[in-house]
Amino acid sequence: MPIIRVDDLTFRYNGLDVISNITFAVEKGIYLGIVGPNGSGKSTLIKNILGILRPEQGRVELFGESISHFRQWEKIGYLPQRLSALNTHFPGTVAEIVQMGLPKKDPVTLRRTLEMMAIGHLASRLIGELSYGEQQRAMLARALIRRPDLLIFDEPTTALDPETREIFYSLTREMSRTDGTTVILVTHDIGAIGQYAQNLLYLDKKVIFSGTFKDFCASEDMTGFFGPASQHLICHQHDQIGSSG
Amino acid sequence: MDLLDIFHYGFVQRAMIAGVLIAAVSALLGLFLVLRRFSLIGDGLAHTTFGSVAVVLLIGISPLYVTLAALPLVMVSSLAIYKLTSSRKINADAAIGIVSSLGIAAGIILASLSGGFNVDLFSYLFGNILTVNNTELLLSFIVFLIVVAAVIYFYDDLFAVTFDQELAQSMGIKTGRVNVILFLLTAVAAVLAMKVAGIMLVSALLILPALTALQLSLSFRTTMIAAVGFAVGAVLCGIVFAFLLNLPAGAMIVMFNICFLFLVFAAKKLSHLRR
Known about the structure:
The complex is a heterodimer. Chain A is an alpha/beta fold. Chain A is built from 9 helices and 10 strands.
């Protein structure tokens, strides 16, 4: 049973197709990278998968259940792209935000998760007082605290320094390998896609490519979309990881 | 007159109890509204309260039950603002403007049809907490219990929706249900606040205590408690000074709320300068 199954999904806004006829599936434990140009519908696809937006046509299943009947939301950790709209006067502390929605607040798990993201010292600070990078680390901690079965990240590393970015990628890869966590990563960080993702979905309002890296690297069509240099960079980094690990 | 003497009057006791309950309810809800940039919903609902009161007076319902009778129309107006806003085609401020204008226009037309403005309708414009009757006192108490219970029960959901609605949706929170509850409770609070501060100043009771508490940079729970504290303090001070100085209680309550805001703001500035 796939963790995510998307079947013939179309979403329109003001009569225009934002994404159309999207079909793909993600199996358990897969690290999937979703890439595509700006406005290609990556975030829209994620919001349709999570039930935030309702598609015009098509079907989404999470853990084998139709999205309309899905209730096991604790299995999903999500980091949205847009945190810049955060109200700077919001009076929530990092501890309150990270534990948001948890039925049982466990101080030990909280401390461990915050320290994992190197923000243990910020637990009692207000989220609006932090730098964008610190806010992003807090939001990552929120997504990871339950150790969910499915992690969905929409541009997670935009504001992160290289060190935290490395921590983030290593952590999610480790979760994918050891715990069988399924990871969906929407990013413009092509290097990271090559290094960490096993499968690739290239989107430009519709699916241009969906498959493994081996297929991607062998595809001459993809050279046309990505350009030879980018395709080579992605494949080279993926090969290096494959040969080392 | 001795200051303590005023507490012996039944109407002052009723005013203080009702004022404290209504102020606490308004401050609790106000924090969520301010953070979600719905600050002006109080104004909008107050204006529709004007229209609703005009309807109630036109059909001849006893003044004793005007507050109760005006509730359904204001609740419908509140849901209309929510529906217009959630359609994503109209911004919140514009949606509030539409419903607000409709309320005022309907109120004026109905007042005109009933033979011109009468004293009753004007008394709701400026409010008078000292005329709170037993029905309104009981209603305030019931609403207080409902709002406190709702905030405690839905605290996690309200917190998440206030922080980020889409994130809350991805957590499986039924954001539509949470929003409807918040908007309906706000409608009830606005109708009751009309009695305290008058239609013209309802939004002050919703906005000012929350704004004052937000200046303190506390956690969410503590900010809620602080907002209620400021609101209750302003009501008690406002009623006492209004009585002693023979000034309108609603306006005095609002003035104390503004004083608290400026005092906290000044203290915050001062502490920043000292660092």
